[in-house]
Design brief:
It contains 21 helices and 32 strands. With about 650 residues, the protein is α/β, with parallel strands linked by helices. The strands form nine sheets. A seven-stranded mixed beta sheet has the order 6-5-18-17-19-20-21, with helices on both faces. Strands 8-7-9-12-13 form a five-stranded parallel beta sheet, sandwiched between helices. The chain has a four-stranded antiparallel beta sheet with strand order 25-26-28-29. Helix 20 links the parallel strand 31 and strand 32. The longest helix has 16 residues. The model has no long low-confidence stretch (mean pLDDT about 95).
Length: about 650
């Protein structure tokens, strides 16, 4: 833990955007900042000056910036950033009009499409022409039920260019899951494809779209983009929603070649995103134009070191905030790489793509890294990844062993950045840093201008001790509000109920001696045997080292006036959980943690329930084993897996 796994060379450090940013800050403000931690402290102490420097260095486009950077800088919620500014989100992502590659799409079936910044602008302009026929105005909602294809980005940019609000779900959502989301926001238009590909299967989207349209009277038009056919049959949609379905080619205005970007306020709505919805109807989280743009520019430019020469990829669907995060890379002129399909259609399909497309920044999930290790993938031996400079991981804590695997079997000279944030902030609290070393099991740093801290239950700051991850000062990408939360109570209760005027994020973590961060799991999933708080990630790390275990989920069961730790495991095909394997699991946990961490029961299951974005749902499993109802199963990718946890005899003794 005391020796870094990777350390950037001085020459590499001095080539980074972050290094040049420090020099610029020093020159502009007569300072002598020499390292990241000094810069972070300055960015907290002078957040107004920091964000204005980002605005300038990233070339934020606006018709009017105004002289005020922040009002009510001591209020959360209540702070207002750039209250006088007028700008447009899409104008910033389309500010480049040259022939460099903007987007590359790769499908699991081998399909590939590439378009330039100039062609992207033209495609958006034509779609804006189509939207104008429906008199789309600022604040109108437009929804996408789309796979991760170029048309999805074109639709979002066209929406944003008019000041309208974009909201999307991936096409693997069930009808009820979509209605739980879009039904709350009442979109005027719905974009979809005719279908999508996943794990070798061709799946039809239009049957579900017909059911969605029949239940959403607010929809005035359903725009269908061809993806799995040359000319989709729209008869199902015509029956469900007469006179509403139209092919994309018939919707656009090919004569529209220029975009008149609508001026918007900094805090006007841009995106509506959704909480996971595994414990009730999803919260509709509304993110603003300026805050999203400024925060993403900071994270891409400084923390991820994005420049126009980069090819940036993140494995995501349109239903996860990492899609919104990825797309913002267009504002820095890089090439954004999209992939749609299963990341495991073949064990190395994403590594094959990374080599072929010369990916420099490869984003994925902790689950993916653990899975390709278990599958025996060794890219350092099988692939040429000479262009790869950074690997990003999020979705769940990245285990220490996955850090080892990346540096042993993927690439030795690479920045491995485990990052953590969420839909709530459309960004990150802890990220990578191209001028800092990487330590095993740690997220490198707290985000610039993010006053991230760890609190105990009394609100006292902690170091090298576990507690609640909080943010004690306003930041631009806080939600502007929750949809239909007219008195702000839902918003307040979600983040500010625990500590006054302090954002409590719901993560259980610690700040290390290096100034890095460790995430131990979600606070609401923390185990509490004998009154001792245990982060679930501490147990997963030990269990999933074991060769026979593919994945696991751990929950607390109320038992005899206490809580006991219950571990469920999915084993490799053909393996059976016997007493010897149970002893191995318990010994591994006991030897590397504490006796409190050792599960009282270890139970084999065939599957673990996950959200659409791949996160395991500890709270839902905990409800099931206590006989409580899980009310929103449509938020799950595999809701049938919950049945595996009902009335288990092993839990009755």
């Amino acid at each position: 833990m005391t020796q870094p796994l990777w350390q950037p060379s001085q020459s590499r450090i001095e080539q980074t955007n972050l290094w040049h940013f420090i020099q610029s800050v020093n020159a502009s403000h007569h300072l002598n900042i020499t390292d990241y931690h000094q810069l972070h402290q300055w960015s907290i102490d002078h957040s107004d000056l920091f964000w204005d420097q980002i605005w300038h260095q990233c070339g934020i486009q606006s018709s009017h910036k105004g002289s005020v950077i922040i009002e009510n800088d001591n209020k959360m919620p209540g702070a207002k950033w750039y209250p006088e500014a007028k700008l447009n989100f899409a104008a910033n992502l389309l500010k480049f009009r040259h022939d460099s590659t903007a987007l590359i799409f790769c499908g699991e079936d081998g399909a590939r499409e590439e378009i330039s910044y100039a062609l992207l602008y033209q495609r958006v302009a034509a779609l804006v022409g189509g939207l104008k026929k429906y008199d789309i105005k600022p604040g109108d909602r437009i929804a996408g039920f789309m796979p991760n294809v170029i048309d999805s980005i074109v639709a979002m940019l066209a929406t944003a260019s008019l000041g309208a609000v974009w909201s999307s779900c991936s096409p693997d959502f069930g009808i009820n899951g979509v209605l739980d989301r879009f039904g709350q926001i009442e979109p005027r238009l719905l974009f979809t494809t005719d279908g999508y590909y996943y794990n070798g299967k061709t799946l039809n989207s239009l049957e579900r779209v017909a059911g969605i349209a029949a239940s959403l009277p607010s929809i005035e038009a359903i725009v269908v983009c061809d993806h799995v056919t040359q000319a989709a049959d729209l008869s199902l949609l015509h029956n469900a929603a007469p006179n509403k379905a139209i092919h994309l080619k018939d919707f656009i205005d090919v004569n529209a070649t220029e975009i008149e970007f609508v001026d918007c306020g900094f805090d006007d709505p841009l995106y509506i995103m959704y909480s996971s919805g595994t414990t009730g109807v999803p919260k509709c989280i509304v993110h603003g134009i300026g805050g999203t743009l400024l925060q993403h520019n900071k994270e891409h430019f400084l923390h991820t070191d994005v420049s126009p020469v980069d090819v940036m990829f993140y494995y995501t669907t349109c239903g996860w905030m990492m899609w919104n995060w990825l797309v913002s890379g267009l504002s820095l002129g890089c090439t954004v790489l999209l992939y749609d399909g299963s990341p495991f259609k073949t064990p190395s399909i994403l590594m094959d793509m990374a080599e072929r497309e010369k990916v420099t920044i490869f984003g994925t999930s902790a689950k993916y890294i653990a899975a390709i290790e278990k599958a025996g993938v060794k890219p350092a031996q099988s692939h040429n990844l000479q262009h790869l400079k950074s690997i990003l991981s999020t979705g769940s804590p990245l285990s220490h062993e996955s850090f080892d695997y990346v540096y042993r079997e993927v690439k030795r000279d690479v920045l491995l950045a485990s990052i953590s944030g969420g839909t709530d902030i459309a960004s990150c609290f802890a990220l990578g840093c191209p001028i800092l070393p990487v330590y095993r099991g740690e997220l490198q740093c707290r985000g610039l201008a993010m006053a991230v801290d760890i609190f105990d239950d009394e609100g006292q700051s902690l170091r090298q001790t576990k507690g609640e991850l909080v943010c004690s000062a306003p930041f631009p990408s806080m939600p502007i509000y929750f949809w239909q939360d007219h008195d702000g109570k839902k918003y307040h209760d979600a983040y500010f109920d625990q500590f006054t005027n302090v954002w409590a994020h719901g993560d259980y973590g610690e700040i290390t001696q290096h100034g890095g961060v460790i995430i131990h799991g979600r606070s609401d999933a923390v185990l509490n045997p004998g009154g001792v708080r245990i982060g679930t990630a501490e147990i997963y790390r030990q269990v999933e080292i074991i060769e026979d275990v593919l994945e696991s989920i751990v929950v607390g069961q109320n038992w005899q006036h206490d809580v006991r730790v219950i571990l469920f495991v999915v084993l490799r095909p053909g393996r059976v959980l016997n007493e010897a394997l149970i002893r191995t699991i318990k010994q591994q946990v006991r030897a590397n943690t504490t006796p409190r961490h050792v599960p009282e029961k270890v139970i084999q299951v065939s599957a673990i329930p996950r959200t659409i974005s791949g996160k395991i749902v500890e709270l839902a499993v905990r409800k099931v084993i206590h006989g409580e109802e899980v009310t929103n199963k449509d938020a799950l990718a595999n809701p049938e897996a919950l049945d595996l946890f009902v009335n288990l005899s092993a839990l009755s003794s």
